[in-house]
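Hi R.,

As promised on Friday, here is the backbone we talked about, encoded as C-alpha cells. Could you run it through your design pipeline when you get a chance and send me back a sequence?
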C-alpha cells in the first residue's frame, strides 16, 4: 500500500502527479456526484456546445447516488457505484477538463488512456462503507438535473473523504497490481 495523503479540491495537475497507485487519499473540499443518466446528459451538452452544469477543470466526479437523508444529516448513505457504467462518457469529460473520478471497479482502456493523455486520476471508493462516507459530507446542493432524483448532480462539501488511487496519471492501475508501466 502507498502513502496516506490529504488533498484539497480543486485539484491541480501538480497535485495529481504526486498521487501514485495505491496511495490512500483523504479529500477535502467540493466534489460532484453524477451517475449514468447525468453522464449521458453531460456528454450530450458537450456535443451540442452547451455550457456544462459545473466547471470540470480541476474537479472530481463521485459516481454515487445518495440514499434518502435522515433528519439532521447532510446526506443519506453515499458510496461508490460501478465506474464501468460511465466508461462510454468518461473520456469525453476527461478531455473537457475533468480531473478525477471516484467509483469502484476497473475502467475501460479508453478511460485509462484519457487519464494518461490529460493528466487525470481515478480513485476507488470502498464499497460497503456508504454510511461512514456520508459522515464526511458536510453540505449538499443540487447543481443540475433535479428531475433525475438520486442521479441528479449534487455538489458535496466533503471533509477527509477516504479513497484509494486506483489509476494514477501515468496509467498505473491497482487492478493490475500498480505495475503496468
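Update: got your reply. Pasting your designed sequence below so it's all in one thread:
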Amino acid at each position: 500500500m502507498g502513502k496516506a495523503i490529504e488533498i484539497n479540491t480543486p485539484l491541480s495537475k501538480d497535485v495529481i502527479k504526486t498521487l501514485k497507485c495505491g496511495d490512500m487519499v483523504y479529500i477535502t473540499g467540493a466534489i460532484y456526484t453524477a451517475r449514468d443518466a447525468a453522464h449521458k446528459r453531460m456528454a450530450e451538452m458537450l456535443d451540442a456546445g452547451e455550457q456544462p452544469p459545473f466547471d470540470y477543470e480541476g474537479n472530481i466526479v463521485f459516481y454515487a447516488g445518495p440514499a434518502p437523508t435522515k433528519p439532521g444529516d447532510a446526506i443519506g448513505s453515499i458510496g461508490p457505484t460501478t465506474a464501468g457504467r460511465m466508461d462510454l462518457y468518461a473520456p469525453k469529460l476527461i478531455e473537457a477538463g475533468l480531473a478525477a473520478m471516484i467509483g469502484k471497479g476497473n475502467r475501460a482502456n479508453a478511460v485509462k488512456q484519457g487519464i494518461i493523455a490529460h493528466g487525470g486520476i481515478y480513485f476507488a471508493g470502498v464499497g460497503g462503507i456508504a454510511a461512514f462516507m456520508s459522515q464526511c459530507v458536510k453540505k449538499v446542493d443540487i447543481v443540475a438535473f433535479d428531475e433525475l432524483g438520486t442521479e441528479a448532480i449534487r455538489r458535496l462539501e466533503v471533509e477527509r473523504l477516504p479513497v484509494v488511487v486506483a489509476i494514477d496519471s501515468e496509467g498505473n492501475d491497482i487492478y493490475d497490481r500498480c505495475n503496468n508501466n
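One thing I noticed while checking it: Residues 4-175 form a domain with the fumarase fold (CATH 3.20.130.10).

Thanks again,
M.
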